[in-house]
Amino acid sequence: NRKIEAITQWVIVPGYEKTLEQVLVTLVDMTQQKETERELIHAKQRAEESDRLKTAFLANLSHEIRTPMNAIVGFSELLRDNSLPDKEREDFLYYLKSSCDALSTLVDDLVDIAKIEARQTKILNSECFIRSLLDELYTYFREEIRSIKSPVELSLETTINTQFVTITDFFRLRQILSNLISNAIKFTNQGYIRFGCNLTNPDTLTFFVEDTGIGIPKDKQHLIFDQFRQLDDSISRKYGGTGLGLA
């Protein structure tokens, strides 16, 4: 009942004449060579895909920079008109600030990616009041949803009280949650967005962002944390963005 393990190996069998009564066969184990060849092929494919993504990223980056820049220039020119009604002036200032914020976020993302690739990212841990952070995010994104006149309902759900403190990098935690909520707003046209945090174990905090948006196909979900990756990386795509948010 002993089982024999079958092993597939690559070998070279030199040619021979069938008329000979005896044959001397020399076998050369090529398993390692074939493994190396396979790894080289995969590495080449990954490099080509990385180059393709970076090319698409640079094309989209130009578009993502021009859009807020054009708005900044345009609204700045309009605001020079002293006869503008107060309501229009207020609206133009809001759009001007939004464009500046979008450009600032884009620059921050680019700097972060450069630091990550250069291994210069630093985590600065300090005391963080989680509930205060969540309340701040809720207030900010509730106003953003109102400003774009979206029918989406935003809600904060948490069992964390105002006195709960943990040690973490406040800026990075806020950045991660902001990117996730921004993504939810971008891809949700109706329904709801829920986010929050719960203490699932004495030493475990679980953060979540849930929405009724278009979602991501299961066969693409493993790609969402890749740098420069978007399901649609063409300039004519429906949704904006550089693909850096979740990376």
Describe the structure.
With 247 residues, the chain is of the alpha+beta class. Among the domains are: 52-117, Signal transduction histidine kinase, dimerisation/phosphotransfer (DHp) domain (Helix Hairpins), CATH 1.10.287; 126-215, Heat Shock Protein 90, CATH 3.30.565. The protein has helices at 31-78, 86-117, 130-147, 170-186, and strands at residues 126-129, 153-158, 165-168, 192-201, 204-211. A three-stranded mixed sheet has the order 2-4-5, covered by helices on one side. The chain has a two-stranded antiparallel ribbon with strand order 1-3. The longest helix is centred in the N-terminal third of the chain and has 48 residues, at 31-78. The protein is extended and about 105 Å long. The two termini are 52 Å apart. The mean pLDDT is 81. Its EC number is 2.7.13.3. This is histidine kinase. One of its GO terms (molecular function) is phosphorelay sensor kinase activity. It catalyses: ATP + protein L-histidine = ADP + protein N-phospho-L-histidine. It is an enzyme of class 2 (transferase).
